[in-house]
């Protein structure tokens, strides 16, 4: 079991799996969750500043979370998520992009109780050209191995 104190900082780890963006999965997701015309209609997408069909931001976020579960790690003492900070959509995800995730634990903070700590991890979704499409800092509450001194 990995506790808050045990987490190595500044060591990037990548997803074992990847995700290929296709016209079908872009349109399928967007049809249900974000039917903005350039996400569901190739003619509308061609007229957009991107010039081609591109994935909705919420689709890219969903892919990020899914792929994050394929990053190899030991069982942790995570209690709950606290939220995301610094969410940025840096580049569009387009048909043919092969996506992977990189997670880097960047900071530990004291928790609200002595037996807890907060781990901040940078999540990055990137394509086959190593361009980052989405990034955010994920905050989770973890158990400490030893409670903080009072």
From TrEMBL:
Locate the MaoC-like domain: which residues?
Answer: 12-113
**Would you say which domain of life the source belongs to?**
Bacteria
Q: Which Pfam families match?
A: MaoC_dehydratas
- The identity of this protein, by name, is MaoC-like domain-containing protein
Which species is this record about?
A: Thauera terpenica 58Eu
Q: What is the lineage of its organism?
A: Bacteria, Pseudomonadati, Pseudomonadota, Betaproteobacteria, Rhodocyclales
């Amino acid at each position: 079991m990995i506790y808050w104190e045990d987490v190595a900082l500044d060591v990037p780890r990548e997803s074992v799996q990847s995700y290929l963006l296709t016209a079908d999965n872009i349109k399928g997701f967007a049809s249900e969750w974000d039917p903005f015309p350039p996400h569901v209609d190739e003619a509308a997408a061609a007229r957009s500043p991107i010039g081609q069909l591109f994935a909705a931001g919420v689709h890219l976020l969903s892919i990020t979370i899914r792929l994050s579960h394929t990053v190899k790690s030991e069982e942790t003492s995570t209690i709950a998520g606290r939220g995301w900070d610094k969410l940025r959509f840096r580049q569009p995800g387009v048909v043919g992009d092969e996506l992977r995730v990189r997670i880097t634990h960047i900071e530990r903070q004291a928790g609200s109780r002595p037996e807890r700590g907060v781990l901040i991890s940078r999540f990055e979704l990137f394509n086959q050209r190593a361009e980052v499409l989405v990034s955010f800092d994920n905050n989770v509450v973890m158990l400490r191995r030893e409670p903080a001194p009072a």
